[in-house]
Design goal:
This protein has two domains: 162 residues, Immunoglobulin-like, CATH 2.60.40.1630; 128 residues, bacillus anthracis domain (Immunoglobulin-like, Sandwich). Helices cover 10% and strands 48% of the residues. It has five helices and 19 strands. The strands form three sheets. Strands 1, 2, 3, 4, 5, 6, 7, 8 and 11 form a nine-stranded mixed β-sheet that branches. A hairpin with a 2-residue loop joins strand 15 and strand 16. The radius of gyration is 23 Å and the shape is globular. It starts with 7 loop residues before the first helix and ends with a strand.
C-alpha cells in the first residue's frame, strides 16, 4: 500500500461524519502540484496529503459508520502520524483551557528527530449553522526559538474540531531527551453564509436557463464569533531517529543530483536533495519525486522548492510513512524532477493555463550501505 494513491473508499472512511480540513498552504501546494498531472502520475501520500481535498465530495457518498472520535480521525489521516499514534508512541496530555464557552484541549504530543506533533481538540456548541474552528497562534521552545510549521490535518464534526499540528524539529535540540514547548492555540465559532434566493423581480428580468430559481452565495463572507486564545506549556520526550550522512552525486539524463543527508524517524523520513535547475528563470517551482526502498518495500515521497532563482535547488524531501530504522541497506531513488512555470502563490488567470512544465525522468539511484 505504500505506493498506492488514496482511494475513494479511503477518503470515505476518513471523512464520514465530518470534514477533512487541510491547511491553506497545503491546499495551495496540491493545487499547484496536481494542476496538470500526466497519466498515471504517482502522487506521494504524505507530501501531497492535501490532495484529499479533490476527493472531499466523498463526504456525500459514504454510508459507512466509523466508531472513532474526531481526534482519532484527525490523527489517522496522515500515515506518519497514524503510525506513531497507533503504535502508542504519543504522550497523552489531556489538558483543557476554557475560551468562552469552547473547551480547548491539547490531547497528545510527540517529538522525534524530524518533527514535533501536537494533537488538539475544541469542543463547543453543536449547531447546524456554525462550526468550531481551531488554529495555532504560536509555538516556541523554552529558549524562545519559534518553531516552523502549522496545522496539517483536521477533522470536524458538529460542535467539535480536532487538528494535528506539525513543526520541524530544530537541529540544535534534536539530541535532547526532552524539549519544553509553549503553544498558543485559538478557537472560535465560524458561520458561513447560507444560499439566498435571487429577488423575484430580478429573476423575471434575468431568468435562469433551467427555469429554476437562482441561488447566490457571497464568497469568503465568514462570520467569526466567540472563543479566544489559550496558552499551554509542557515537556515532550524526544524519540531518537537515525541520521545517514550520504554526500553522493549521481548523473542521469545529463543532470547531476546530490543526496546530502537522510534522517529516518518513526513519524517520517526526510532528506536533503540538491540538483541543477534546467531553467530557473522560466520554471520557478521545482519538485522532486522519490522512492526509498528497504528490502522489497518502497516508500514514496516528494520535495519542493518555491524559492527557485538560482541554478541550484536544494530542497527538503519528505517521506511520511514509518520507515524501519534498523536496516543495513537503503536504496534512495529519485524518480523524476518536475518544474512548473508558476509559483504557487502567483495569481493565475484562466487564459494563462495550462502552465508549462519541464519534466526530467531519472532515475538517480543512491545505495546507502550502513556500516556498523
Amino acid at each position: 500500500m505504500s505506493q498506492d494513491r488514496y482511494s475513494v473508499s479511503d477518503v470515505e472512511e476518513m471523512l464520514h461524519g465530518g470534514a477533512f480540513r487541510p491547511s491553506d498552504d497545503l491546499q495551495i501546494r496540491v493545487r499547484s502540484a496536481l494542476r496538470k498531472p500526466p497519466p498515471a502520475f504517482p502522487v506521494p501520500r504524505y507530501a501531497w496529503m492535501a490532495g484529499l481535498t479533490v476527493l472531499v465530495v466523498a463526504l456525500v457518498l459514504t454510508g459507512i459508520v466509523i466508531a472513532l472520535s474526531p481526534k482519532e480521525k484527525a490523527a489517522s489521516i496522515v500515515y506518519g502520524i497514524g503510525a506513531v499514534y497507533e503504535a502508542g508512541l504519543v504522550h497523552p496530555i489531556d489538558e483543557t483551557r476554557q475560551v468562552g464557552d469552547i473547551s480547548l484541549t491539547v490531547d497528545w504530543v510527540y517529538a522525534d528527530w524530524n518533527q514535533i506533533l501536537v494533537g488538539y481538540t475544541a469542543q463547543g456548541r453543536a449547531d447546524h449553522d456554525i462550526h468550531v474552528h481551531t488554529g495555532v497562534v504560536s509555538a516556541r521552545l523554552a529558549d524562545g526559538t519559534a518553531l516552523e510549521g502549522d496545522a496539517i490535518a483536521g477533522y470536524g464534526e458538529m460542535g467539535a474540531d480536532s487538528s494535528v499540528a506539525a513543526f520541524d524539529m530544530p537541529e540544535d535540540v534534536r539530541d535532547r531527551q526532552t524539549i519544553d514547548l509553549q503553544l498558543v492555540l485559538q478557537a472560535a465559532y465560524e458561520q458561513y453564509p447560507t444560499p439566498s434566493e435571487t429577488d423575484p423581480a430580478e429573476e423575471d428580468q434575468n431568468p435562469s436557463p433551467s427555469g429554476a430559481s437562482s441561488v447566490q452565495l457571497e464568497p469568503f463572507a465568514v462570520i467569526t464569533t466567540g472563543g479566544g486564545e489559550a496558552t499551554f506549556e509542557f515537556s515532550i520526550p524526544v524519540t531518537p531517529g537515525r541520521v545517514i550522512e550520504v554526500g553522493q552525486t549521481e548523473e542521469a539524463k545529463g543532470y547531476a543530483v546530490t543526496l546530502e543527508q537522510v534522517i529516518i524517524a518513526p513519524s517520517m523520513t526526510t532528506a536533503r536533495l540538491c540538483f541543477e535547475v534546467p531553467d530557473p528563470v522560466h520554471f520557478r517551482q521545482w519538485f522532486s519525486f522519490v522512492t526509498l526502498m528497504t528490502g522489497s518495500k518502497g516508500y514514496s515521497g516528494a520535495g519542493d522548492d518555491y524559492q527557485v532563482g538560482e541554478p541550484y535547488s536544494c530542497q527538503r524531501v519528505e517521506i511520511g510513512e514509518s520507515v524501519p530504522l534498523d536496516r543495513d541497506r537503503y536504496v534512495f531513488r529519485v524518480d523524476e524532477l518536475a518544474g512548473f512555470e508558476f509559483h504557487p502563490r502567483d495569481i493565475v488567470t484562466n487564459d494563462m493555463l495550462p502552465e508549462e512544465q519541464w519534466r526530467v525522468k531519472g532515475p538517480w539511484v543512491f545505495t546507502l550501505d550502513i556500516v556498523p
